[in-house]
Amino acid sequence: xxxxxxxxxxxxxxxxxxxxxxxxxxxxxxxxxxxxxxxxxxxxxxxxxxxxxxxxxxxxxxxxxxxxxxxxxxxxxxxxxxxxxxxxxxxxxxxxxxxxxxxxxxxxx
Length: 109
Prior knowledge:
Layout: H1 6-9, H2 20-26, H3 34-37, H4 39-50, H5 65-85, H6 89-106
């Protein structure tokens, strides 16, 4: 019997497809957004292991400026999906416009 709620066991990240059970089995998350999706299961673990609820992770030393410039856009796309799923269409439209502005600013229209 798992030691976490059934609804947590059924969660799947919409961005990378990782499930909470995958994380429990391997000890690895699939993407940064797993911290948002699996928050309820990770906070007690982070408290216990790191004595903190905040985990910043690591960034590859060779990460280019282009990758860093697109990270906020990826985060906005995740927020957009969440807004659409929760039927917050006005918020989704605002996020969509932010994505378009950032992509235009980064030159990747």
